[in-house]
Design brief:
The protein is an alpha+beta fold. The protein has one domain (43-187): Rieske Iron-sulfur Protein, CATH 2.102.10.10. The protein has helices at residues 6-30, 43-47, 112-117; strands at residues 55-58, 79-85, 90-91, 100-104, 122-126, 138-140, 145-147, 154-156, 162-165, 177-179, 185-187. Strand 10 and strand 11 form a beta hairpin. The N and C termini lie far apart (106 Å).
Length: 201
């Protein structure tokens, strides 16, 4: 009677199964090794108001390239932006009060305080209407007026975004700008004026 070959075949397959199992364990453990340790950003940092030296980036999309003077079309609808700390790459988008309108106009039409806050004709204002907190989203190109679509408050950007009509109790807060050697738009000083909604008594 011939010997049964099955025990020999099983013995030959055993090392292969052990090697496959070890390879699987090693692969599983490798998945738990962090490939990149990402820096932790504190909630306070993303909610902090724009700081001097912050750059401005588009609020839409994932492009965090700093905006330049050339990116802001003369007389066109404002660009909505967030401030970004270039040292830590922290996007300050943790509060909607940090939403900023950036527009470019002929600086010859600015009043003196507005001209002092501009960088090559580029102005920046809070995007939040002080009346009820809506986004100031409309641009009336012919009179060059910013409009809140909720209750139609109108603001003149050439005169510090003062209220020219509508129920808003005050002007939009201004964010003074500077432009570096590459015409990159940076925050010169913190907001001038109060942000947010005025509580009605």
């Amino acid at each position: 009677m011939k010997d049964d070959p099955r025990p020999i075949a099983r013995a030959m397959r055993a090392p292969i199964r052990r090697r496959a199992a070890l390879a699987g364990i090693v692969g599983l453990c490798a998945n738990f090794v962090p490939r990149q340790v990402l820096p932790q950003v504190s909630p306070e940092a993303v909610r902090a108001r724009p700081q001097p030296g912050d750059v401005l980036v588009r609020a839409t999309g994932d492009d965090h390239r700093p905006l330049t003077v050339a990116d802001i079309a003369l007389g066109e609808k404002p660009v909505v932006a967030w401030p970004l700390d270039p040292a830590s790459d922290t996007l300050r988008n943790g509060s909607r009060l940090n939403r900023i309108l950036i527009l470019r106009l002929d600086a010859d039409g600015f009043d003196p305080p507005t001209k002092a806050n501009a960088a090559d004709g580029v102005l920046a204002y809070s995007a939040i209407c002080p009346h009820t907190g809506c986004d100031v989203a409309n641009w009336l190109a012919e009179p060059q007026i910013l409009e809140c679509p909720c209750h139609f408050s109108h603001y003149d950007p050439k005169a510090g975004a003062k209220v020219v009509s509508g129920p808003s109790p005050r002007r939009l807060a201004a964010l003074p700008l500077a432009a570096d050697g590459d015409s990159k738009l940076t925050v010169a000083t913190p907001f001038i004026g109060r942000l947010g909604v005025v509580q009605q008594s």
